[in-house]
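HupE / UreJ protein, Pedobacter hartonius. C-alpha cells?
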Amino acid sequence: MQDFHLYFELGWQHILDWKGYDHILFVMVLCGTYLLSDWRKVLILVTAFTVGHSITLALSVFKFIHINTGLIEFLIPITILVTASSNILAGKSKPKGMQLKYILALFFGLIHGLGFSNYLNSLLGRSTNIVAELFAFNVGLEFGQIIIVISILIFSFILINIFKVKRWDWNFFLSSAIFGISFVMAAERWPNLFS
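C-alpha cells:
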C-alpha cells in the first residue's frame, strides 16, 4: 500500500511538473475547445488518450517495445502541433468529427505513453512489484490529467460566460499559443533524432 501511494504521487507529480510541460500542453489543447457542458465528450476524448498511453506505458515497462527516445521526444510536440492545428482549422464551428478526434487521441496517447515510460523505467530499476507500481503510477497520471482538464474547462467557462470572451477568440488564442510553443519544442528536438 505504501508503494501504491509513492507511485501514485510520482505519477501525478510527473504530469503536473512544469519541467515536462509538453504533456500539460497536449491535454490543454485536446480539451481547450470544449465547454463544461461538453464534459461527456471531453471524458471520452481523455479516456481515449488514457487508453493509448496506458498500452504503450505497459508495453515499454515490460520491455515488449523499445523506441528511440529522441524520436519519441520529437513526436510528442508533433502531436501537440497536429491537435492545435486541427482546432484552428475547425474555425468557428462547434467541435465535430468526434470519431476522428477519439482515434487521434488514442493514437497520440500511444506516443505519449512511450514518453512517460522513459521516466517510469528510470524509477523502477530492478523492482519486483512492477505491475502494482505501474498501475499506481498510471492512476497518478490520470489524477493529474483530470486536474488539468477540470482547470482548463473552468478557466474557459469563466472567460466565455463571465468575461464574455467569444468562444472562437479563446479557442484561437489557446490553440495558436500552444501551436507556437510546440513548434519551437519540435524544432529544438529535431537534432536529437540523429544523435
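The chain is about 80% helix and 0% strand.
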